[in-house]
Write a structure and sequence with these properties.
alpha+beta, four-stranded antiparallel sheet, two-stranded antiparallel sheet, 13 helices, 63% helix
């Protein structure tokens, strides 16, 4: 049944066609045998694109969900509408009168400080309170605190002011006196109404501040005016009573006994006035009132130099350390100028003292001479001198009273004027589009793009995770099959 081969029979020869190994599955061949650096090196952009294509449904779902989320945010978030108003805060007020009650600001830094102060008034509690009272925001659900419905009116007003304060924004461009005020609300109309009310309350508050200052000054002048009126009346009454008691007429010419006595008395009067002026000057200098600055140009210049040096030192102290050489130099210059000012003041005071002593000596000499020459003068001469003294007192008192009276009337009229140059150059208008959140289309597009990016990342992550699991799974090491080419 079986036929054995012969021993000398030749062995069967292989086919002429060459044999080659059978290729593996590409999905399996791309996976290295073990995880390691070669595993990450085998991840190419084409492999990642394959992962994304495998999980395309995840990408689409997340993109759609992101778009719906953006659309929902745009429709569900309460909108905010912001209106703006531009105000020109010119620090140079109108000068309606020559001798105004308020001083004019001249330096640029002082003008900026004035503008910044007015900006602070714009969002102050007083201005916001005026807006709350004008628009009755305590009963507005948007500003009222729903949790404190049983609170008092004062607490409701405070809560409305705080809410309004959080919505107000005031800004100023650099190198400009134009200030922009803005308020946001849930509706465009209410935003414009709030901004206009804020600007109107600000203008009223500025006028009230200026009016209160003028009124306070007028009250102080009127209070002092009553005292001066009484003093003037007493001085004039004293002159009339003294003239009546001594029988002196209004015309005093020819009442002296001799021409020499008239001349001496005239010199005595001049010496007395000189002495009073010298005493007043010396008292003003020794009291530290700074009267010497009006008599010495050197002292005025030194005070100006000292003020400049002090301002420079204070500016350096605000930016440099206490041991900085520039600051030390500025302080030394300030100290040297202070010493020169003190020396000049001492020199002026010494000169005033010498003038006072000289005036006192001259007055004493003339008084003694007048006492000698007036031995034969009528008995009413002394009364005449006293009368003139009373008249001088009366004249000066009346002059002071009239000056205060004129000034009080000017201040009273000044309180009726508004010299502020604050002007609204851009009234508030109802905004067309909301300021927050962005438009629904933009939110939906942003959500769609965000969801797409998240879907791509998740798809790539899922593909990479599957890739890692496949790489770690053990595989059989069977030899490759051979087949003919």
């Amino acid at each position: 049944m079986y036929q054995s081969l012969k021993p000398d029979a030749p062995a069967p020869q292989p086919s002429a066609a060459p044999l080659r190994a059978v290729e593996r599955d590409p999905a399996t061949a791309a996976i290295p045998k073990r995880a390691g650096p070669s595993l990450l090196a085998s991840v190419t952009p084409f492999v990642i694109i394959g992962w994304v294509r495998r999980f395309w449904l995840v990408v689409v779902i997340l993109a759609v969900l992101g778009g719906f989320a953006g659309y929902a945010a745009g429709t569900m978030i309460p909108p905010r509408y912001t209106s703006y108003s531009d105000i020109l805060l010119d620090p140079n007020d109108l000068q309606l009168v020559a001798d105004d009650l308020y001083t004019r600001v001249s330096s640029g830094e002082a003008q900026l400080i004035d503008v910044e102060s007015k900006m602070r008034i714009l969002n102050s509690i007083s201005v916001l309170g005026r807006v709350v009272d004008q628009l009755d925001l305590t009963s507005d659900p948007e500003f009222a605190d729903a949790d404190n419905a049983a609170a008092s009116d004062a607490d409701k007003r405070i809560a409305a002011v705080r809410t309004l304060s959080d919505r107000v924004r005031v800004s100023r461009e650099e190198r400009s006196y134009v200030v922009t005020a803005s308020i946001w609300a849930n509706t465009p109309e209410k935003s414009a109404i709030l901004t206009d009310a804020l600007v109107s309350a600000f203008l009223v508050e500025l006028a009230a501040v200026e009016l209160d200052g003028a009124r306070n000054a007028s009250d102080a002048l009127n209070q002092r005016l009553a005292e001066l009126r009484n003093d003037a009346a007493k001085a004039e009454t004293a002159v009339v009573d003294y003239r009546r008691e001594h029988g002196l007429t209004a015309n005093r010419d020819g009442q002296l006994s001799a021409q020499s006595a008239v001349q001496i008395n005239s010199q005595v009067d001049t010496a007395r006035e000189t002495l009073i002026a010298a005493e007043a000057r010396y008292a003003a200098l020794t009291s530290g009132a700074g009267g010497g600055s009006q008599e010495s140009e050197t002292l005025a210049q030194l005070r100006t130099d000292y003020a400049t040096a002090k301002q420079k030192a204070d500016a350096l102290a605000a930016t440099l350390g206490p041991r900085h050489p520039s600051l030390a130099t500025a302080r030394a210059e300030q100290t040297a100028l202070q010493g020169e000012v003190d020396q000049e003041v001492s020199r002026i005071v010494e000169g005033a003292r010498i003038d006072l002593q000289r005036a006192r000596d001259v007055f004493d000499q003339l008084s003694n001479a007048a006492g000698t020459q007036l031995g034969s003068v009528f008995s009413d001469e002394q009364a005449e001198l006293e009368l003139r003294q009373l008249e001088r007192t009366s004249t000066s008192t009346v002059a002071i009273y009239e000056a205060y009276l004129t000034r009080a009337q000017q201040v009273a009229e000044r309180s009726q004027l508004n010299t502020s140059k604050v002007r609204v150059i851009s009234p508030a208008l109802a905004p067309i589009a909301r300021s927050y959140p962005p438009r629904t289309v933009l939110l939906a597009a942003g959500g769609l793009i965000g969801g797409l990016v998240a879907g791509l990342a998740l798809a790539a992550g899922l593909g990479f995770l599957q890739y890692l699991l496949a790489a770690k799974r053990p595989r059989p090491t069977a030899p490759p099959r051979m087949r003919a080419a």
